[in-house]
Amino acid sequence: MTMTAPKPTRKNATKAAKRAKGNATNGSTKATRATGRADRTYDVIVVGGGHNGLTNGAYLAKAGLKVLVLERRHLVGGAAITEELRPGFWFTTFSYALSLLRPEIIQDLELVKHGFMPLLMSNTFAPGLDGEYLMFTQDHGQNQQEIARHSKHDADAYDQYSHDMEMVCQAIKPLMDMVPPDIFSDDPEEMIALANLGSRFKKMDKRVLHNAVRLLTGSAADFLDDYFESELLKGYLASSSIIGTKVGPRSQGSGLVLLYHSIGEHDGEFGAWAFHKGGNGGFTKVLARAAESFGAEIRLEAPVDSVITKDGRATGVALEDGTEFYADTVVSALDPRRTFLELVNPRELPDDLVENIQRFRFQGTSSKVNFALDGLPTFGDLDGSQFRGFTNIGPSMDYLERAFDDAKYGWYSQNPYIDCAIQSTIDADMAPPGKHVLSCFIQYTPYKLRESDWDSEKENLGDTVQRTLERFFPGFGDLVLQREVRTPLDIERTVGLSEGNIFAGEFFAPQMFFFRPAPGWSQYRTPIDGYYQCGSGTHPGGCVMGAPGKLAAGQILKDRTKTGASGKTRVAARV
Ligand SMILES: Cc1cc2nc3c(=O)[nH]c(=O)nc-3n(C[C@H](O)[C@H](O)[C@H](O)COP(=O)(O)OP(=O)(O)OC[C@H]3O[C@@H](n4cnc5c(N)ncnc54)[C@H](O)[C@@H]3O)c2cc1C
User: Fold this and answer.
1) Domain that holds residue 337
2) Which of helix, strand or coil describes residue 338?
3) Is residue 497 left, alpha or beta, with left meaning phi > 0 and alpha meaning psi from -120 to 50?
4) Same domain membership, residue 265 and residue 214
5) What is the pLDDT of residue 37?
6) Is 58 in contact with 296 (CB distance < 8 Å)?
7) Which of 319, 334, 487, 491 most suits a substitution to test ligand 1, by most atoms within 8 Å of the C-beta?
């Protein structure tokens, strides 16, 4: 890979100069002097080398544009990185699994050529508190038999549930791959797009449409209660309804999160999940290689301070050390708070947009605890080598709801929901022979704690998680060689996701589709001419799916074709 470090040339702004001083003491030594403005002029500058920034840059470079991706950290990937935190032990520090990645991105960006290698999870394990468990595989019939061990009624209902969910997912999935129509525009093109969307819903089967509305507006518990009686099964299924979001399974809005997490696929297999070889960091390295193969330049340790604007249009960016780069298109792959309130002066934006972004809900509620293990945990007669996918610690709906109760009142769950995976059982290169890595996604851990803070509570959270795992896997503590705790505050500090929200903004109806990130600004443009957004805070949202990066690239290319540059005529008319 040919990623390079920044070249400082400008040290005039007080803020930038101060930050540059900070960088020097942080040991950022790779900077070299740029030769001239021409060297620093591009067609497009993408701010942020997370997977959406990389996807966006790759599509634009493939279209023939001269692209520069600027990443603040020493590695690409953002929330999707893999790090060696102990010799031979590779951790997916934050994000760990793949399912929602849009399949056409794999083709369009020729990712297989660059090492794309998802490894299918062959099962999911859901232990109960009483020694019982559910072990799901990719075989529907086997899963029914497994459920029948707990409830004959539920085994029958599982058929109907799987069918109903798949029908809703198939109906909703196309929305993930389209730019939301602008419902506030009088442009005939937008009106046609809206009419097409309406007719899509009108053509839907009555039951499918009704189920979709129930999921999009209601609670996961109400939906699941209609089908099932087994608490263990309902706990397992409801777990997908709370991921990354400050809702319990009985809260309205959890249905939407359940639906979102059910839409994925792996190799054409509906709802399947995979680990990428080398973790999600392995995946983002593949993306970076693809982007570079199309000619994109990626600069690391290049924190952008601000977007440079002139007469209402973007003309480039200034790094924290004062270096400037120029382009008539600048794309922010950061979250909406950083895109609209930090990278540009909010006074350049309409008041209603600023108000909407100030109100945009983040309230991160998830943490990560990663373990280096001396061996495999066991559960009754099952030894850990059989856990070749997610292990779901959410043994009933009540368990999940009580975990949420703690968060409602400003504290972290004392019996948390844990979605964990021994990634080394699937990808042996993640740990030395005979040793293992366990990646644990934790909820609920609200960003704002009542009468305390995360720097004080961090290791207490680690202890709580370890204690919980010990309940399910007796002797677990004896296997622990090392532990890494990453709270919402760490996520914010390390990745830059505001309040540690894993999706760059909560998933709930007023922040989705037409309204993500704000009413009137869901089409990846901004009121500043030539300034675009492509992070997870835009439609369709977070997860390692690449859709925002891809859809934003489409809009940029469309605008450039229309205007010969970056959408000047069209965007100026909106402001
Ligand atoms: C703990 C955790 C677990 C998760 N688990 C999963 C999972 O298993 N599967 C899944 O699909 N999703 C998961 N997610 C969600 C998913 O990883 C994120 O939604 C997604 O990776 C966000 O991608 P992005 O490119 O939009 O933004 P980010 O990944 O946030 O990338 C933004 C990039 O911009 C950089 N940056 C920030 N400020 C600047 C600046 N001023 N100048 C230059 N660069 C800057 C950052 O360093 C970062 O690299 C998880 C997230 C977290 C935090």
Assistant:
1) 14-25+38-78+281-361+507-574
2) helix
3) beta
4) yes
5) 85
6) yes
7) 334
Round the average pLDDT of the chain to a whole number and report it: 92
- Give the pLDDT score at 9: 37
Q: Give a yes or no: residue 144 inside a domain.
A: no
- Residue 565 is predicted with a pLDDT of 56
Percent of the chain with pLDDT over 70: 92
Pocket test for ligand 1, best of 365, 544, 545, 551 (most atoms within 8 A of CB): 544
371, two tokens: 């373990």
Check if 441 has its Cβ closer than 6 Å to any atom of ligand 1: yes
Side-by-side strand order, sheet with 329-332: 297-299, 67-70, 44-47, 329-332, 531-533
Pocket lining: 231 vs ligand 1, CB cutoff 6 Å: no
451 and 400 in a common domain: yes
pLDDT tens digits along 526-547: 999 999 999 999 999 999 999 9
- Looking at the CA of residue 303, tell me the nearest atom of ligand 1: 42
- Same domain, residue pair 286 and 264: no
The pTM is what? Answer: 0.93
The residue assigned the tokens 């947009």 is: 353
Number of domains in the chain: 3
Instruction: Using the predicted structure, report yes or no on whether residue 14 has a pLDDT greater than 90.
Output: no
Shared domain for 163 and 249, answered yes or no, is yes
Name the DSSP letter for residue 529.
B
Q: Is the CB of 537 under 6 A from ligand 1?
A: no
How far is CA 525 from each of CA 6, 85, 283, 521, rounded to the nearest angstrom?
27, 39, 27, 7
Q: Is the CB of 6 under 6 A from ligand 1?
A: no
Q: Average pLDDT in the 56-60 region? A: 98
Asked if 67 and 88 sit in the same domain, the reply is no
Strands 304-310 and 44-47: unpaired
Atom of ligand 1 nearest to the CA of 534: 26
| Average pLDDT score over residue span 5-15 | 37
Query: What are the Cα distances from residue 493, in Å, to 79, 97, 475, 565?
Result: 11, 22, 34, 35
User: Contact 481/469 with Cβ under 8 angstroms?
Assistant: no
CB 260 within 8 A of CB 541: yes
pLDDT of residue 567: 43
Q: Does residue 257 share a domain with residue 189?
A: yes
Same domain, 246 and 291: no
Instruction: Please identify, among 437, 466, 498, the residue that sits at the C-terminal boundary of a domain.
Output: 498
561: which strand partners? Answer: none
Residue range 244-248: average pLDDT? 97
Give the residue from 437, 465, 498 where a domain finishes: 498
Q: What is the pLDDT of residue 382?
A: 94
pLDDT 10s digits, 306-346: 999 999 999 999 999 999 999 999 999 999 999 999 999 99
| CA 531 to each of CA 64, 379, 502, 519, 567: distance values in angstroms, whole numbers, following the listed order | 19, 53, 24, 17, 9
E-assigned strand segments in 271-406: 274-276, 297-299, 304-310, 313-319, 324-326, 329-332, 366-373, 378-379, 382-383, 390-393
pLDDT of residue 268: 73
